[in-house]
Amino acid sequence: MRVKFSKSEAGFTLVELLIVVAIIGILASIAIPQLASYRVRSFNAMTHTDVRHLLMTQTAFFIDFQVYGVSAQAANLAAFAGSTGGPGARVTGPAVLGAIPGITATNLGGNVCAMPLRLSNNVSMVATTAVGNLSVFTGVAKHLNGDTYFGVDSNTTTTFFDRVLGSESIPLAAGIEPPATNGDDFTGVIGPSGNAWRVR
């Protein structure tokens, strides 16, 4: 037996369904790039927070030990080797068993000093002091999936940044931080993008 439907009981036509699918496709083509952009911006914000934390940690380190430290990674705080200055190692967050990121130095009394660094997931950082001069430091950080490098300096409370489009999935390389001196080490200095570092 055939059942007849009245006009009010009829379903959607194929044309109506195609129009709905087309509208959803157009909205998705707008939303997906925006979502990717928001993700990169959130990774950059995370890195900016961590580099500001480096500045605060270095300040506390200097107050406690009268020297700045270089970045290093060790199994625990007692395992840090100390440093008499120079480039730090690239450290990446978060802290995991057997790999705690921190800063370390050998103070004027010959004592090894260390302090842990709080780093977010996939944020890499390098803190460097001048060779033989632990009274100055520079630090640079980048999130693996971010596109902006952030830097801090012992001679200013300003945060600097350098955006490198297309650098997502490129890890931070040690050695891109400016050398630590007794002045502003970022203003007018060329960053990873080939342009000068800018004030954040």
From TrEMBL:
Q: Which UniProt keyword terms apply here?
A: Membrane, Transmembrane, Transmembrane helix
Per its UniProt record, what SUPFAM superfamilies does this chain match?
Pili subunits
| Entry superkingdom | Bacteria
Mind telling me which InterPro entries this protein's record contains?
A: N_methyl_site, Pilin-like
**UniProt keyword annotation of Nucleotide-binding present:** no
**Membrane-spanning residues:** 12-32
Name of one Pfam family that matches: N_methyl
Indicate yes or no for the key word Transmembrane: yes
Q: Write the protein's name.
A: Prepilin-type N-terminal cleavage/methylation domain-containing protein
Q: Which organism is it from?
A: Trichloromonas acetexigens
